[in-house]
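R.M. (postdoc): so does anyone remember the format we settled on? I'll just put the structure tokens first.
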């Protein structure tokens, strides 16, 4: 039976594991950065590999036949490790990335190439809905004269600055709920990453309907020369083919 390693942590990774198991031996690797993650079917491995060399050694030791990088679109370091490990071992690699979001009628978006660029776009005295993850908080919290409603799955590292209110929550979200947050906290701008997917699009719809401007952080580019799938169905076809 062929062995497939899925670098996971996303809804797409869980769906792919469900499609392939039990016809193939599926191992899903989770980085272990989220408390109580949603677990896929099949075998689960938690924790890092120790960089590309560690991943390459693991692929060889476990006799992995196929490698699918279905990590978050902003997990650039893990993707780079997957590319390097695939090249070193000859294990075929597919990157599974859901498409990013596209601005539509009624949206007011500004694009930023990095978190730092996004922070520079936040005007003074703004009340900011920050949904870029707990590790990005230091980039924004140091800005004087701003207030942040920062939403994340797990708490950020203490101490939390006085100008930040942390909202612990996990999607999917509703448009009504996001609209209520925007109005309750009198928010001026939404800062988010171009993660794509349906689980968190409600905030974009709520922003459109309330006239809230959005600062959208662009995702890292997919490495050149690597096979890319934008859907679970495409990834299943690649594995089976």
């Amino acid at each position: 039976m062929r062995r497939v390693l899925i670098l996971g942590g996303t809804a797409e990774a869980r769906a792919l594991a469900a499609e392939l198991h039990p016809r193939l031996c599926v191992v899903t690797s989770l980085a272990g950065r989220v408390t109580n993650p949603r677990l896929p079917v099949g075998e689960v491995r938690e924790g890092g590999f120790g960089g590309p060399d560690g991943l390459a050694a693991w692929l060889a030791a476990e006799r992995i036949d196929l490698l699918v990088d279905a990590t978050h679109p902003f997990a650039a370091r893990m993707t780079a490790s997957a590319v390097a490990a695939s090249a070193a071992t000859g294990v075929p690699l597919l990157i599974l990335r859901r498409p990013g979001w596209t601005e539509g009628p009624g949206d007011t978006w500004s694009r930023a190439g990095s978190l730092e660029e996004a922070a520079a776009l936040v005007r003074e005295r703004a009340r900011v809905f920050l949904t870029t993850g707990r590790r990005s908080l230091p980039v924004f919290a140091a800005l004087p004269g701003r207030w942040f409603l920062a939403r994340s799955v797990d708490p950020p590292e203490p101490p939390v600055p006085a100008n930040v209110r942390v909202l612990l929550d996990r999607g999917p979200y509703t448009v009504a709920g996001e609209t209520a947050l925007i109005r309750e906290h009198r928010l001026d701008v939404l800062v988010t990453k171009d993660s794509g997917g349906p689980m968190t699009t409600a905030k974009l719809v709520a922003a459109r309907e309330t006239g809230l401007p959005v600062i959208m952080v662009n995702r890292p580019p997919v490495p050149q020369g690597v096979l890319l799938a934008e859907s679970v169905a495409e990834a299943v076809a690649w594995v089976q083919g």
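R.M.: ...and that's the designed sequence above, right after the tokens. Also worth knowing: The mean pLDDT is 95. The helical segments are 11-20, 51-61, 76-89, 115-121, 137-141, 175-184, 202-210, 232-240.
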